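The instructor's notes for this session suggest beginning with a concrete chain rather than abstract definitions. Hand out the sequence below and ask the class to guess, before any prediction is shown, which regions might be ordered.
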Amino acid sequence: MGGRFEPPASTAGEPFWEASREERLVLPWCEECSRPHWYPRASCPHCSSGRLVWKQASGEGVVYAVSVQARPGNPLMSGRVPYAVALVELPEGVRLMAEIDTDDPWSVRVGDKVKASWEPLSDGRRLLCFRPATTGEG
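After discussion, reveal the predicted structure:
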């Protein structure tokens, strides 16, 4: 694939990026209301508590919405078109946006099962993507 826009690291997302180096998907959970959320922030969007911990997620999900990018929104992504970007719903109860790693982005459909995959970034972090789950995988 071509170039890649590399997202900046943030203080709130540091635990996510550290886990990404080991290809582990973690999510922030509130200790007060016992709910996960996405994106990383200083307080729970459900109850406003600041008592947050990071927990391992399954790495599995379902495509909730998808868009195929035939023209990149960022020039750094021009060598990657077309590519599919999806809103993926995780069984933990959050939705997050990620690229779907596939040779045929036009084949990605709402309801498709996907699994986490990781693309290396220049600083050792890994970018969360998803790939189609193949039949027969448990």
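Then share the key points. The helical segments are 14-20. The two ends are 28 Å apart (CA to CA).
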